[in-house]
Amino acid sequence: MLSPGENLASTEQFSLTQPWPDSPFIDTLLNSRSELKWTVVAHTVTTPGWEIFSRSDGFRCLQDHLIYLALGGVAVGAVGDRAVELNAGDWLWLDPGVPHRFRNRPGETCFDVFHLRFRLIDRRKDILQGASPRLVRRMQHQLPLLDHLRREYRGTARLRHSRLKALLAEILIDAGERAFTHESRALNDTQRHTIERLSARRSHHVTPAELARTLHLNPDYFRRLFTASYGVSPRHWIVHQRLEAARVLLLESLLSVTEIAEQTGYADVFQFSRAFKRTFGASPLAYRRNA
Questions:
Q1: Dist CA 121 CA 28 (whole Å)
Q2: Following DSSP, what letter does each residue of the chain receive, concatenated?
Q3: What CA–CA distances, in Å, run from 238 to 37, 192, 213?
Q4: Which helix (H) or strand (E) holds 247?
Q5: How many CB atoms lie within 10 A of CB 122?
Q6: What is the model's pLDDT at position 261?
Q7: DSSP H helical ranges for 78-215
Q8: CA atoms within 13 A of residue 269's CA, in its CB half-sphere
Q9: Which residues are paired to 101 by β-bridges?
Q10: In 3D, which of 26, 62, 31, 23 has the Cα closest to residue 161?
Q11: What integer pLDDT is reported at residue 2 of this predicted model?
């Protein structure tokens, strides 16, 4: 069990099994024999003191699937024995029967959330997603899709039920693709913070191999995760960070170019000057003079 200060705020911290687009749940949802029963389709802004729980142990269990898309504010709580914090953009999917509780984080006046509650029934049986709770980040782009679903839910158009099933399938597939093509193949916030903290130290010039060891990752796997997260290789990113630190020192200190080169990990001042000019379009001396 996690301690009260820990949380699950990234996809990697929830177990991930098969990709959702290939899940039997999606197949059943799109099957004409299955029935989708809705309980809630709503966009809600909570009031101060908001909290959800029901049982004597402080947790709520629903007979429905529950999907939250957090749009603003912060909610804190737990899913089973795992602490959870929902920030803007977080998307959470819970199966029926999964114990959970949430409340406004202390100091937050409200929590802005779009939530869905539904049951999927096939041959008189409730269909579960068959996996652990899913938490996916940076999903704000789904709001127009959810608004579309809410309009269909309130409407009376022909084939309304088929449209609702198709929209829900699109929402689930989009979240699944996000989880498996981005989140699970990129560095999480804690890993990025560690990289940026170590790279900011001037007393030691970190290497990609050291960063991989610090994060307990295979160097090749680390390089792929890093490139997916930052858009450049670790080596190019580290060089750019060193040159950016040198640029700041040129503007804000009285150190010589040689001293700045040494402080940013360059033993050869001429190599430093060439690298600086390639990046900033001027030599270090010219950059300082013209600033």
A1: 9
A2: ---TT--B-SGGGS---S-GGG-HHHHHHHSTT-EEEEEEEEEEEPPTT-EE--STTS-B--SSEEEEEEEEE-EEEEETTEEEEE-TT-EEEE-TT--EEEEEPTT---EEEEEEEEEEEETTEEPP--SS-EEE---GGGHHHHHHHHHHHH---TTHHHHHHHHHHHHHHHHHHHHHHTGGGS--HHHHHHHHHHHT-SSS---HHHHHHHTT--HHHHHHHHHHHHSS-HHHHHHHHHHHHHHHHHHH----HHHHHHHTT-S-HHHHHHHHHHHHSS-HHHHHHH-
A3: 52, 13, 16
A4: helix 234-252
A5: 13
A6: 92
A7: 143-154, 160-181, 189-199, 208-214
A8: 7
A9: 78
A10: 31
A11: 30
Residues in the chain: 291
Give the model confidence (pLDDT) of 83-95 as tens digits.
889 999 999 999 8
pLDDT above 60 (res 80) = yes
Tell me the one-letter amino acid at 161: H
Q: Which amino acid is at 2?
A: L
d(C-alpha 48, C-alpha 44), whole Å: 13
Residue 16, Cβ density class (10 Å: 0-12 exposed, 13-18 middle, ≥19 buried) = middle
* CB-based contact 93:133 (threshold 8 Å): yes
d(CA 142, CA 85): 19
Return d(Cα 95, Cα 31) in angstroms, integer: 19
